[in-house]
Amino acid sequence: MFKRPSSSRQGPLLFTFVVVADTHVNESGDVSSSPFHTNQLANERARHVFQDIAAMTPAPAFVVHLGDIVHPVPSLPTFADAVAQFKDITSALAIPLHLVPGNHDVGDKRIDWMPADQVCAAYIDIYREAFGADYHAFDRGELRFIFLNSLLLNSGLAEEAVQRQWFEAEMDRAGGKRIFLFMHYPPFIYKEDERGNYDNIDEPARSWLVGQMKRPAVEGVFAGHVHNFWYDRTNQAEFYMLPSTAFLRHDFTEFYKVSAGYEFGRGDVEKFGYFVVDVYESGHVAYAVRTMGRQTAQGQQQAAIPTRYLSHPKTSTFDRVGVELRHPWAESMQITATGGVQEFGRKWARNDYPLMALWEMGARLSKVPDIDLAEHESRERMRLMARLGHRYIVTTLKLPQEETTVDSGMQDCGVYALEINITLSNFARQKEAWKSYRRHTGHSLYLSKILTYDGSNYDGKHFSHFVKAGFALDELEGSAEFLTDGRKAGEFDGITVRIEADQDLASCMPQLTAFRQRTGCLILASLKLADKSLAVARIDDRANAAKVVQSMALSKASDGIAFVFDTFMDVDRGYFPRNAFIDRRFNPRPAAQAFTMMSALFSDFEVLPMHGFGTTRAGSISFSAGAANFVLLCETAETVESYLERTAHSELYDLVECCTCLTANAIADFHTRLMAKPRPQLQVLLIRTS
Q1: Angle at the Cα of 315 (from 311 to 317), degrees rounded to 5?
Q2: CB distance 341 to 621 below 8 Å
Q3: 250-265 pLDDT, tens digit each
Q4: C-beta separation of 22 from 76 below 8 A
Q5: Which of 245, 457, 482, 557 is the most buried (most CB within 10 A)?
Q6: Predicted model pTM
């Protein structure tokens, strides 16, 4: 079962469909022509996926497979056995399954250095006999879905011209219908004019296809082959490249700054998955579903899958809580050719896994350094993401020139505020410039006080050698008059307040709220995840998750206060090492999963009124969502058990383990597990009390 926000800015939900890519089903459950162990598990992983889809309630309208259906190529005698395996695996589906061929299904694209069998008429005939038409289209209401055999492009086969004429006619006859396109090979993975490589469509067919994608009626394009996630846009069309259910194309693990993991990255199961696409009256939302490499053996009933939580910036309403993107989040690099069909040269690619994690969380707000706005590529990614609902606070050491602001098109890039880090002495000399900037640009400014010297730890042997930015809580009272005057004078809109990792956020809220009401200043709460010592690693994922869910609940109860976590990706080297939302392979940690759950559960509510603390500990808070009342418990296992024994409750959510208990038996089972030893000390639970 999937839980996601029921409301959308895009009108009523019309229907849902599912997109799967690159299952690479083998001729039997324990044999693969690939030497990698990961490939031997492809059948069981595909079976899990299709049983998962078959169990969806309500059922999707249809399923799309983007090719590389099977692993053996048509020239092998095992091809027919793999086809039979795939049909058995998908027999659980009671809904239509639409296929397009991949290079493993009809042969590789035509290129003179390709070592594998290339596409030919005989292989296409074998495919058609096994699976049916290799290209087709159908309509559903006011939408048209077109499925393309991308291996025909540039093939020189007679069928290439036939498909092209048919495709253009289908596009022309669509009239006012919205169009979705599906194919195996993507036309490009990095930019439209990139050099040809194993992962894209070569010229001249690429330009023709991209031109078709740019027709105004095309809303979405889905491609496989690359076994990784990328997102782009061609005119109005959102362009998705999907991960595989079977294995990672591990040449792209060059993105990692750590070891690639199992089988040199091929077995990075946290990136395996498929997409669920909700189609609305106006637009669509594509959710990534991570399968985590789960398996179901032939003849085995699928194990119960816990409720999965889905979110996206298009559906999330958590506008006042986000993350600081200290690391590059749209980093491009040349991917090394290491052999096989990647023998020659290098190819450019962008790492979109940080973006995928942000989408899964439904994180709409990010703080980025000014270099992201200054450099063309990251600025254009900001502009692209702004169309989906992303909003940015740009943090900088100096006030930009007004003409620079205009030239960069900050508003089009989703920038709504600037955080200026400055000493108070320098600010005093620049007040008039700040006033002028606000008056002429309309951008909000946050004053982030720089503390360059901290004598609180001075003992005659050590000295402070790091910078702190933001007002401390204990500075607010003494600075209230000065900051009130500055806001009224139009010098700034708000201030940054620094909240340390060991400060309980819920306990801080009364002081933040009182300051906001007294001064009228907006507050940007910078939530630190690092230890106070720059040499001590803070790796407490449960404490991070607790602060995440606190901030999300509080963000919908406090106007004018926003929360940004520092930082989004783990810091595992340098100063202040700490765990964050994603690890250095860009896979989600508990903080990210907790963010997703809260976003999925409460995005349908604009306000979550607070009712005080849930227990004697300030970190546990009580709030309501519509007619339902909830308590957020961030407590020891013993305290949680005591609370549950004396309090009536109908629903229980473990926000770290992503566990949902909606029945009395499930809650009783949770109680039993809770008191089992060993158990984590800090529990982060959401309890519905009425």
Answers
A1: 100
A2: no
A3: 889 999 999 999 999 9
A4: no
A5: 245
A6: 0.94
